[in-house]
Design a protein that fits this description.
heterotetramer; A alpha/beta; B alpha+beta; C alpha+beta; D alpha/beta; C: alpha+beta; Alpha-Beta Plaits; three-stranded antiparallel beta sheet; two-stranded antiparallel ribbon; D: alpha/beta; Rossmann fold; five-stranded parallel beta sheet; 5 strands
């Protein structure tokens, strides 16, 4: 379990807010322009496993969540880094150079939510066919489906 | 995997809905590009439109092979969202199903990889032995695949002494069979020639590419969510993590075979330590509304780390559900692994990560020297690789020592 | 990991022993279409519906994840509505069996789900 | 009835070759189809064989609700099969859409695209039911359906 004080000390004022949920997991909130700096600090600290990138459209902003693990025998830590990007002009820095496994995760978020990752060469759709309209991003909240019957 | 990739899986051996483009120079692969999404069914969007309880059955169908891992991982996350206390007996039954699933999944995969290298005898043996596990899960849950045993706050069915003693029998049976398989795999020339030294993924690369599950452990990376971030009852369960430093397909086979033995030991431990009575589920019904909350949940599925993110908005339907299946995490490693190998090695390498979307149904091979494009389907590729090995057998053996 | 070891240069050594052992055993193949198989207690097969117990409350239709149950007007129940089961949509999850207040819905052990027309499986009240 | 069609029907009776295609299923039905060919059920007793090319196949076994990416492929595979050809759908999601009704990326049921001869309901179907389906199909062919 990661302690908040330790995190605060190592991240300095990069993080906007750090909180823990009921099960003791840390959620670190950060501004978009400081995201890369913060992730590189965490990467140096030993958080070398990126579980995935979650994109979530809350109606006003698009949230990007980076779920990281620091493996350390029995006392491994997992934390979640949260940042926000604009809904109309969704851009975020690519973290491919820090985490090569982000290759597929960034393509997936781009595909389903339309967030463009700057610095990701050859960013294209991962799951949907190539011929769908360019602005078709099914996980956005204004796209509705009907599951009744 | 799957899902979205996650999703899914495909038939692990005969035809898969995944498509790779390989760039080759002569016989050697210089680059590869996967094309996935043939099984993308929009599950994450559908999940936002169904209730928390209906999603139990939807998310189980992300993958038919690791269905219990998906459902259990979702239920575990949803319990955090609902802030529910799970009875201890429910956790034991849930873990029992997870381990049985690992047994049948590894047996299935062992058969598949043997088929990929053209060794169908062992394929038939493993699938025969797998039926013992399938009969047991049918007894416990009422279905062979898609057990639907988990619910939010516990499990749906109790387990009686007869079934528990059957579980003991099955565990010992699979453990003895696993020993036989290990002997065969390590001594059969046919298997050694096709898998030893093939698909190298070094320890540093495995960590750098965030490889998960048995694929990482076969590269000497000691990472197992059951051990590192214990969930359910794994922090009390005594078990060893199997690692091997061979870094090749052979190591991946050995790691999975030994994991079967470890799993059978865990099953025996669960059977002996299961609480005798007590409730099996917390009181949450189809019409209970959760508080506004979010949770991340991880379990070690047979193929590696499975990740769920759940967010509720206080209504009967979830706000967002994110699934990251282990195959998706490993697909980057596959691209790295095939580079520098021969076309004939593609089937064992790709099958080596246990892709839930597994097989390749159509492979395009492009020769970078003369831009010639050749299309293979999976069967042709298998036949091609067996023939190629027969022809090049002698010098290859010398080359690989 | 010890590769090879004794017996490696005896082609088919380990496997041949295994194969010979299996030769002596009786076949594992079940003679299915001729001999019926036994399914275990609690198997989740096709649904059975007993309209005399049904209240017509419609809880089953609300919990069904696949919209396989629709409520249609009927004279036979107290609330003048009864469920119609399109079993071609059923995924055998058992939600309806669990929530039914009067236990009017139950699982049978019938696993013969192959049909030439989907409508053969619909249960009308 | 001509002699040739009689011979054709006789030949079909004991040797249906199956091409299996996953069009977006969860793998559950796929492993059960494979199970039918392994020692416990051993469908090769009845001459049922999985083949690797649609050009050799008599029966197309489809699992899954047909995703957009697999739509073109399933059409192409069906066109490549020689006449007479039959389609068997395995699993609830391929038969009616099942849990994936309403998704933006699936078509729903297979019968919107291809003429289907037999359905195997179940999520996933039990291997015995898949054997049943082939038995029913053989019966249908004997009676001269199609």
């Amino acid at each position: 379990m990661v302690s908040i004080d330790e995190l605060k000390a190592s991240l300095g004022d990069l993080a906007k807010e750090i909180k823990t949920d009921k099960s003791g997991k840390a959620w670190v909130f950060v501004e978009l322009d400081k995201l890369k700096k913060l992730l590189s600090l965490l990467r140096i600290d030993g958080y070398d496993h990126l579980s995935t990138i979650t994109g979530y459209d809350d109606g006003e902003k698009i949230q990007l969540m980076y779920h990281l693990i620091k493996f350390n025998d029995k006392g491994s830590n997992d934390i979640n880094v949260v940042t926000f990007t604009d809904r109309e002009n969704s851009v975020a820095p690519s973290i491919l150079d820090l985490y090569p496994s982000a290759l597929v995760y960034e393509r997936e978020v781009f595909d389903l939510l339309g967030v463009r990752f700057e610095g990701h060469k050859g960013l294209k759709r991962l799951l949907l066919p190539e011929d769908v309209p360019e602005d078709f991003h099914p996980l956005r909240k204004d796209f509705k489906i009907n599951v009744e019957g | 995997m799957s899902v979205k990739i996650p999703i899914g899986p495909i038939h692990p051996m005969l035809k898969e809905p995944i498509n790779f483009t390989f760039y080759v120079e002569g016989e050697t692969i210089v680059d590869a590009e996967p094309n996935i999404g043939f099984v993308h069914r929009g599950i994450e969007k559908l999940a936002e439109n169904k209730t928390w309880f209906q999603n139990l059955y939807l998310l189980e169908k992300v993958c038919g092979i690791c269905s219990s891992s998906h459902q259990g991982c979702y239920a575990q996350g949803a319990e955090k969202v609902f802030e529910a206390e799970v009875p201890e007996k429910a956790l034991y039954i849930r873990t029992l199903m997870w381990e049985l699933e690992r047994l049948h999944s590894h047996l299935l995969w062992l058969g598949v990889i043997m088929h990929e290298i053209g060794f169908d005898t062992l394929f038939m043996y493993t699938w025969r032995d797998r039926e013992a596990v399938m009969d047991l899960v049918e007894m416990i849950s009422g279905r062979r695949v898609g057990y639907s045993i988990n619910t939010i706050g516990g499990v749906r069915r109790d387990i009686d002494y007869q079934t528990l003693s059957k579980a003991l029998d099955v565990a010992s049976f699979i453990a003895t069979r696993a020993e036989v398989y290990e002997k065969i795999v390590l001594r059969e020339r046919t298997i050694l020639d096709r898998t030893d030294g093939v698909g190298i993924l070094s320890k540093a690369d495995a960590i750098r590419l965030n490889t998960v599950g048995p694929t990482a452990r076969a590269s000497g990376v000691k990472r197992d969510i059951r051990y590192n971030l214990p969930y359910a009852i794994y922090d009390e369960t005594p078990f060893d993590i199997v690692i091997d430093d061979g870094c090749d397909v052979l190591s991946r086979i050995i790691v999975r075979i030994r994991e079967m033995i470890i799993s059978s030991e865990i099953i025996k431990w669960i059977v002996f330590n299961m609480p005798k009575n007590g409730p099996i589920a917390a009181k949450i019904t189809h019409f209970t509304k959760p508080p506004e909350n979010e949770a991340a949940s991880r379990v070690e599925a047979p193929r590696g780390e499975l990740f769920y993110y759940l967010k509720s908005n206080g209504s009967l339907k979830p706000e967002r559900i994110k699934i990251r299946t282990p195959t998706l995490a490993n697909i980057v490693s596959v691209i790295h692994m095939v580079k520098g190998h021969y076309i004939a090695d593609i089937p064992p390498i790709v099958a080596g990560i246990d892709p839930c979307i597994s097989c390749m149904d159509r492979v395009a091979i492009i020769d970078v020297r003369n831009e010639k494009k050749q299309l293979f389907n999976h069967d042709q590729l298998l036949r091609y690789s067996i023939k190629w090995y027969r022809k090049n057998y002698r010098w290859l053996r010398e080359e690989r020592g | 990991m010890v590769k090879g070891g004794e017996g490696i240069d005896m082609p088919w050594g380990t496997l041949l022993k295994e194969a010979l052992k299996n030769l002596m055993k009786k076949p594992v193949t079940i003679n299915y279409p001729i001999v019926d198989i036994k399914v275990p207690e609690g198997y989740r097969g096709l649904l059975d519906f007993n309209i005399s117990k049904c209240l017509g409350c419609g809880t089953c239709a609300r919990v069904c994840p696949t919209n396989a149950i629709t409520m249609i007007p009927s004279d036979k129940t107290r609330l003048k509505k009864a469920p119609r089961f399109e079993l071609a949509k059923c995924v055998f999850c058992g939600s309806c069996v669990e929530v039914c207040p009067t236990k009017a819905i139950s699982f049978t052990k019938n696993y013969h789900t192959a049909v030439l027309k989907k409508e053969e499986l619909t249960i009308n009240p | 009835m001509g002699v040739i069609s009689k011979i054709k029907r006789w030949a079909f009776k004991r040797s249906l070759w199956v091409f299996h295609m996953n069009t977006g299923s969860c793998n559950g039905c796929d492993i059960e189809i494979l199970d039918v060919l392994t020692p416990r059920y051993d469908a090769e007793r009845f001459g049922i064989k999985l083949v690797g090319s649609p050009r050799h196949a008599d029966v197309l076994m489809v699992t899954g609700p047909i995703t957009k990416k697999s739509l073109e492929r399933v059409k192409r595979v069906y066109e490549q099969m020689p006449e007479p050809k039959y389609v068997v759908v395995v699993g609830t999601c391929g038969s009616t859409g099942g849990l994936f009704q309403g998704s933006y990326n699936t078509l729903g049921s297979v019968d919107k695209l291809l003429p289907v001869d037999a359905y195997v309901i179940g999520c996933p179907a039990k291997p015995e039911a898949i054997v049943d389906a082939v038995a029913k199909l053989i019966e249908k062919i004997e009676k001269g359906g199609k």
